[in-house]
Each structure stands twice: as C-alpha cells, then as structure tokens.
Amino acid sequence: MGALKPWHIFVLVAVLVLLFGAKRLPDAARSLGRSLRIIKAETKSLADDDKDLAEKADAQAGRQPLPGDTVHPTSVHQPGYQPPAAPVNDPVQRVRDN
Description:
about 100 residues; mainly alpha; about 60% helix; elongated
C-alpha cells in the first residue's frame, strides 16, 4: 500500500520537469548535493568537538594536587560547600578611622 512504484517516480519526475524546466533541474540537484555535503561535514565536526571535549574533561579529572596543597581537593566540590567569607570593609568606618 505504501510502496513506491516505478510509475510514481515517473509522475514525480514529469511534474518536476514541468514546474522547474529541464535547464534548472541539474542546478537544483547540484545545490542540494552541496547542501547535504555541508550538513554532513558540520555534523561530523560537531561530533569530533564533543569527543575532544570529553577527552579534555577526562584528562583534567585525572590531575593530582600539588605537594603541600592545603585545600583538600574534594572539599571544594562537595555539595553545600561555601567559600570563606571575605571581611567586609565599611567605607564610612574607614573614613571615621582616618
């Protein structure tokens, strides 16, 4: 029922020739081929970029802390970690102190 038969293809080609003309069909097919080639190249480069990012992330995850490092490497990445608060300098108080 849903099969494409040879006469369907013939009717489709005849309609395309009538709509666009025999001179424009090769140009349209060439443009379509170029577009598909560009899309294929872009999707391949995106996949390669994703793979490169994953490799870089794996390489960074394997790094070791420097000797003498005072911060435990996992404490910063634990949920609920808050960095120590910096002292707040009140500008009005600084003027009064001077």
